Amino acid sequence: MNTDRLLIAGKAYNSRLLVGTGKYQDFAQTRAAIDASGAEIVTVAIRRTNIGQEPGQPSLLEVLPPSQFTILPNTAGCYTADEAVRTLRLARELLDGHALVKLEVLGDPQTLFPNMPETLKAAATLVKDGFQVMVYCTDDPIQARMLEDIGCVAIMPLASLIGSGMGILNPWNLKLIIDQSRVPVLVDAGVGTASDAAIAMELGCDGVLMNTAIAGADDPVLMASAMRKAVEAGREAYRAGRMPKKTYAAVPSSPSGGLIGQSGGQGGK
Per the residue annotation, which of 102, 121, 175, 229 is the catalytic one? Predict the structure, then answer.
């Protein structure tokens, strides 16, 4: 039995890997990659993916039914607080009152960097409206604390720009956010390969959310499997506690006393 589970908004999950559903060849590849990832939470861009708002068209929920996955609607493509709030209210209607959502309010279409004033404004409105808000944000410890104080259920700082694959560019800020937070901290955006995910988990992140790193790989299903293992390995390494770093001298991994041929060692006359 897994006793080290991810707890978000009062619900426990076995997997600490959250996966997006965009950029795949088709719904079949989407499902295959998510199965390989082991993810239980899948995020869906409401403005780009049909989950019922377009009757008669193929729906993602036919491939990823809410009975098997926690659907996490997100506000990708929103550039104002008002847009984000309207989008998530629509998602709540489509998903029969579902409250857990991912908020992201972007600053511009080139970098997809978070617009933090609008993010804070939208978060306050959504929390007041009864949503359980997981929030994409900059790696600013002060603004992360502000989002937590508003009532967000998870803080999701970017590692680097969305879709960049640049990995964790500022581990120091990320660690500051982790150390101060009382809610889960999940890296969101910038992961490029398995080692990036492992590093995030080794730093103490509670989870990792990714999309392009899997969907943009030459073999998305195989990469999804690799990401699953990386998140699990990084979490185990964090819990185990790494050895201290020592830059000044090498230390033998085995005792130096009693070496064969050394006078005074055990076994000598």
Answer: 102
DSSP state of 238: H
Residue from 169, 106, 181 nearest 136 by CA: 106
pLDDT digits (tens, 9 = 90+) for 137-168: 999 999 999 999 999 999 999 999 988 999 99
85, 77, 73, 58 alpha-carbon torsion, rounded to 10°: 120
* Residue 106 DSSP SS3: strand
Q: Is 269 a catalytic residue?
A: no
Instruction: Name the DSSP class of 105.
Output: -
pLDDT tens digits for range 206-236: 999 999 999 999 999 999 999 999 999 999 9
pLDDT in tens, 47-58: 888 887 888 888
Q: What is the CA radius of gyration of the chain?
A: 22
Tokens representing 251 are 């230390």
